[in-house]
Design goal:
Blueprint (H helix, E strand, L loop, with lengths): L1 H55 L3 E10 L3 H9 L4 H4 L1 H5 L6 E2 L9 E5 L5 E10 L3 E7 L4 E11 L2 E11 L11 H24 L3 E10 L3 E10 L3 H18 L9 E8 L4 E10 L10 E4 L3 E9 L6 H13 L12 E6 L11 E7 L12
Helix pairs in contact: 2-5
């Protein structure tokens, strides 16, 4: 009997325990389902907020930088508009010196382009869209993933050209978070590009060449002139001022000339850094004017002719080469009784790029036998 009661008791206890376990499992399952429901709800809310946040972000960006470049406006324009020049200063080239550029047949007109592969292996194409001479350039940089618009504005300032480079574009949806940081991300690259552009422009400005031409004979010529004594480092500035005054007087008196202005070097004292020069405008005949200008006549005779192309600030290189040439040639002796001459064939009034200025230098020499070619 006791055995039977024990069996009944344990059976009842087992059923009760099992029921309790099943009840806990049901409760745990319900709790888990409740947690999952809340998690899914939070996930939906977060997704809506996330998508809403990205939708609210502006996908368009605009980054610009400016730099004052002391150079002729047309030269800066050509550095940017002629895509072939980008191989010299493009900021991407500095990051990868092995970068190769492929160009269209022409490179300086609307529709012309260059192509390259960037450091991420993405193929890019830069195209000229619109060119307004010396003032505005519009370009596009396009790839499979993104297009960017380049706008270059060139404004003439008193001491140079203000160059403003603006880049505009649209980022993909999932990258909109970077829009607000595009100025920090792209700004340094634009700044470096403008720095390299200025370096390239300066390098072109300093291009120069000297050619010892021949011994030639010059006939005498009449000229109007003004003389001045100044420091050697002020000569170029003084020449411009005096020439402007002479041209003004010639215009007021209806004097026409078909020859180029020139400078006579009366004295050049390197040790004391002083000079005496005459700035001259040739005339067809002797002119007597009641004005603040004098009339003179070159003596003519034999001269060593030297051709110099480049900025006047480097013209001493041509003078040094000319005098070294005379010293080495035993057949040539400089005539110190006549003044050396600089004739300005192409100057800033004809071309704003100093690298294109052409000057003929004439060093007076004592009479020598005619020479077709100077000895080397």
């Amino acid at each position: 009997m006791i055995l039977v009661l024990n069996i009944i008791y344990f059976s009842w206890y087992y059923i009760k325990a099992k029921h309790k376990i099943l009840s806990l499992r049901v409760q745990n399952r319900r709790l888990m389902l409740k947690k999952i429901k809340y998690f899914l709800l939070l996930l939906i809310v977060f997704s809506v907020v996330f998508v809403g946040y990205f939708i609210s972000l502006d996908s368009n960006f605009k980054v610009e930088r400016s730099r004052l470049i002391k150079a002729p406006q047309n030269l800066v324009f050509q550095q940017v508009a002629d895509l072939h020049n980008w191989s010299k200063w493009a900021p991407w080239k500095e990051k990868d010196s092995t970068m190769q550029f492929d160009f269209s047949e022409k490179t300086n007109a609307e529709g012309d382009y260059l192509r390259f592969t960037d450091t991420n292996g993405l193929r890019q194409q830069l195209t000229n869209i619109s060119l307004r001479p010396d003032t505005l350039i519009v370009q596009t940089l396009s790839s499979e993933k993104q297009n960017q618009n380049f706008k270059w504005q060139l404004t003439q300032q008193e001491d140079g050209v203000l160059v403003k480079w603006t880049i505009q574009g649209e980022v993909p949806f999932l990258q909109r978070i970077y829009t607000k940081h595009m100025d920090d991300l792209m700004g340094p690259t634009i700044t470096r590009g403008l720095e390299r552009l200025e370096q390239s422009v300066r390098k072109d400005l300093e291009k120069r060449s000297v050619k010892i031409d021949k011994v030639t004979s010059l006939s005498s010529t009449y000229y109007l002139y003004k003389s001045v004594s100044c420091r050697t480092n002020e000569v170029e500035k003084v020449k411009d001022k005096l020439l402007a005054q002479i041209l003004s007087i010639a215009s007021e008196n209806h004097i026409q000339t078909n020859r180029n202005p020139f400078t006579l070097y009366i004295k050049w004292d390197t040790e004391n850094q002083s000079a005496i020069i005459s700035v001259c405008l040739p005339t067809k005949e002797k002119m007597l004017l009641n004005a603040d200008v004098l009339t003179g006549e070159t003596p003519g005779g034999a001269y060593l002719k030297v051709l110099y192309q480049g900025d006047y600030k480097f013209i001493n290189e041509a003078w040094n080469q000319a005098r070294n040439y005379i010293q080495k040639d035993t057949n040539l002796v400089e005539d110190l009784t006549r003044q050396p001459i600089e004739v300005y064939i192409v100057d800033k009034s004809k071309n704003l790029n100093p690298a294109n200025w052409l000057t003929e230098i004439y060093v007076p020499i004592l009479e020598v036998a005619p020479q077709n070619n100077l000895p080397q």
